[in-house]
Amino acid sequence: MKKNVLISGGTGFVGRNLTDLLINNGYSVSILSRRKRNNTTDIYYYTWDVEKQTIEEEAVLKADYIVHLAGENIAGERWSEKRKKAIIASRELSAALIHSVLKQNNKKLDAFVSASAIGIYGAFNGEEICTEDTPVANDFLGTACQKWEASANTIESLGIRTVKIRTGLVLGKNDGFLNKLTPIFKLKLGSALGSGKQYMPWVYVDDLCRIYLEAIKNTNMSGAYNAAINDGTTNAIFSKALAKVYGYSIWLPNVPSFLLKIVLGEMSKLVLSGRRVSSDKLNKLGFQFYFNNLQDTLKKCL
Predict the structure, then answer these.
(1) What's the pLDDT tens digit per position in 141-173?
(2) 3-state secondary structure of 142
(3) Is the pTM of this model over 0.85?
(4) Where are the alpha helices (DSSP H) in 122-228?
(5) DSSP labels for 26-95?
(6) Domains (range + CATH), the chain
């Protein structure tokens, strides 16, 4: 009988790609969705409402593994105080709902794998290479990610192997971060942002999904893992590579930091700052990134 993987946030960019990978590797997949969807041959949909703390419990009870991707898009809107609270609450409350079903039914999973982000190290610039042991930052990103991981730790407290995937910038076709950049770069109007020196640890979506699959299969995996290429890519390097894919060299000056701060407010920290991270912990498990050349990966995306 096929092992079942329940994915929260399974209809999003990463979730869709992960679903395909899991099915191709012989798993059955269930997805938690805010609205009722029609089941397919390979996917069964269940509904939940995080705010109302309601869920079709069968989704959790029949799962062998849960991959928890759900949460408000951190770059979806300006960071008002209300928006910040919503970003954190969406992660805490969704995990709390899953936790309550597991605990009330004494349900044991083979593993619980939660998304996290390298934002846990904070919105800072610098040459330090962050490992999983680097202290958590006390800014908004660091605090949000810390609470995100703490909500996953409540699942671990039930005696369930728990893995937290600290994700970098996700690249892929027709979705994600690149969707916001490609219209500008297609018009040959792209340029670096701010100083251009801020680091941009990245990962191709196929590799990220393989990391999630590894976390499911590898019983030696537990705790936090950085999921990003440590190649020293800065915003300037990234912008230059993207322009080259479109057949030109950047001719415009960098977008001034003050302008981005006016347009984006505090959320400008997402594009004006970035830390280097090490993926050595993942590599020591034997995991290898298939996509580790930025320009080749951008070509594949576009």
Answers:
(1) 999 999 999 999 999 999 999 999 999 999 998
(2) helix
(3) yes
(4) 140-156, 178-186, 205-217
(5) T-EEEEEESS-----SSEEEEEEETTTTEE-THHHHT-SEEEE-----TTSS---HHHHHHHHHHHHHHH
(6) 4-170+202-228 (3.40.50.720)
